[in-house]
Each structure stands twice: as structure tokens, then as C-alpha cells.
Amino acid sequence: MQEVHLACILLLTGFLFSSLKLASLTLLLLFLMEMEEVSIVDSCYLQYKAHRRKFSRKSSAPKKYPAERSHVVMDVLTKCNVPVVKIEGHEADDVVATLAGQVLQNGHKVVIASPDKDFKQLISEDVQIVLPIAELNRWSFYTLKHYISQYNCDPCSDLSLRCIMGDEVDGVPGIQNVAPGFGRKTALKLLKKHGSLQNLLDAAAVRTVGKQYAQDALTNHSDYLRRNYEILALRRWFVPFIYP
């Protein structure tokens, strides 16, 4: 039986990845780095990214010598023979999602090291996240079990739930802004029954799926919710990547 390797996709987000205690595992290490120029044609997506960068600048402490630090990291990666992947025209988080899917298709497992909460939508039995715990100065594994314990729902519903409830940090308003009374409890109940936002919207278009206020919200603001999906979903692109 072929040995199942653990593929770890590392994304630079301000924490030194070398603190990860993964030396005892059999790994394929990839380092994903953001390109300076990202080609995005969706105007809504542009506004979202602009808000996110603005929020990040406000909430982050001043960074000293970012260029020098980047060179140091790249030098370490080169000396460790760790491949660095940069895909022009695409954001690193979308590339991570794309490569993670390709790794899974090859029968392997994935660990994504990043504090970016967007990756929680990828969590499964075969996909884990390693999150930084700043106060403890270390990283910790975040698994499917942790997710269910924290949110009381399946990660498959993570993206759909965020589309309905919105994401204040990312500047994406929820449906409660246009349909007061449609809260998390209602959203969870409907998603547990229908599985995904798309299934829920399809069902609401042909029959009543809940109380009248929920039905009205879903039918009257379906475009609003689909726009949120386009903004919050990690995008999978074709990436010329050959898995060993």
C-alpha cells in the first residue's frame, strides 16, 4: 500500500513558519508567496480586497524592514530546498485552494499553515490547518473536530453561512442588513437541511423553505447572497503543477 504523505502548503502571513514542529512527518513542502500585481476583473471583488487591505493596515502593528525580512525568508527557503510557488495574476489564497485540491486528487492529505480564516472552508478529514497562537508563540493544529466543536456545523457549510451572515472583518455585509430577523440560528437550520447556499436558493425559488420572513429574504435577495458567495469563495484556477 502506497504510503500516504502529508502535504503542507505554507503561506507567509507574518509568522515564522520554521516554528512549526513538523520535522517528524513525511512532507512535501510548498511555500506560496503573494505576487505584487493581482489581476481581478470583478469590481465587487476589487472593492472587497481594497477594504480588506485597508482593515489589515489599520489592525496590524507597523512592520519594520519588510523587504529585508522577505529576502531572509527566501534565502532560508532556498537553502532548505523548499519550492516557492508564485502564480502571476492570482492571489496566494486562491492558489493554495487550487493546489490543495490537486494534492487531494493524488490521494494525499493537506496541512495549510496560515492564520487566514478563509481556509476553514477547506477543512475536512483530509485537510487540516495549522494556526498561529501569538500569545503562546507557537502554532497549533486545527482539525475537523475543532471546527465542529467551535461552530456546531460542518465546514461544508462554512462558506454558505458566511455568505448569509456576512463577514465584518472582510467588509462583506450579511443578509440581516436587508432582512432583519434572519439570524445565525435560522441560517444554520436551513443549511443543515439543504446543505449549501446554492441548494437553499434553488429550493426557495420553487417552494417555501421556512418561515415567511426567511422565504422572502431568500427570494428577494438571492442576487445579494450570490454576490457574497463570489466574493468570499476561494477561487480554484488551473495551475501547471506536477505532483511528485
From TrEMBL:
Any single Pfam family the record assigns to this protein: 5_3_exonuc_N
GO molecular function, one term: 5'-flap endonuclease activity
Keyword annotations: Hydrolase, Nuclease
SMART domains assigned to the protein according to its UniProt record, in alphabetical order: 53EXOc
An example Gene Ontology biological process: DNA replication, Okazaki fragment processing
Domain of life, source organism: Eukaryota
The 5'-3' exonuclease domain, residue ranges: 10-244
PANTHER family: 5'-3' EXONUCLEASE FAMILY PROTEIN (PTHR42646:SF4), FLAP ENDONUCLEASE XNI (PTHR42646)
Name assigned to this protein: 5'-3' exonuclease domain-containing protein
Organism of derivation: Populus deltoides
